[in-house]
Specification:
- 46% of the residues lie in helices and 0% in strands.
- The protein contains 4 helices and no strands.
């Protein structure tokens, strides 16, 4: 994505560029940008698992399944900070989704 002042982002690109604190053109774009990531960040150490978190528009049931995968990961690797970070990231997403009123949901239904 090559964005400059002479080449401004398209509307589709803008929804991915609206990071916390940057205004979006619509409330839906703002909510989409505020959706937490299911991938942990800032955890030291090498990642040794191939785990892909669901997309932001995935149904909540898919996120619950991802959380269960993370729970099993923590059970198999007790004391591993990366495993705990995956679980924490999944729980952060589910908490954020539960706090959002139903009329603002932008993801697919279960």
């Amino acid at each position: 994505m090559n964005i400059t002042l002479s080449n401004p982002p398209s509307r589709a690109q803008r929804c991915f560029l609206t990071i916390e604190g940057v205004p979006a053109s619509t409330p839906q774009e703002s909510l989409y940008a505020q959706h937490p990531s299911g991938t942990p960040t800032g955890v030291p150490g090498q990642q040794k698992w191939l785990i892909t978190d669901p997309t932001r528009d995935a149904p909540t049931s898919r996120w619950l399944s991802y959380r269960e995968t993370c729970v099993r990961l923590v059970e198999r690797n007790p004391g591993n900070p990366l495993a705990a970070a995956y679980l924490e990231a999944a729980e952060r997403v589910l908490t954020w989704r539960a706090a959002l009123p139903e009329h603002l949901h932008f993801w697919r239904e279960d």
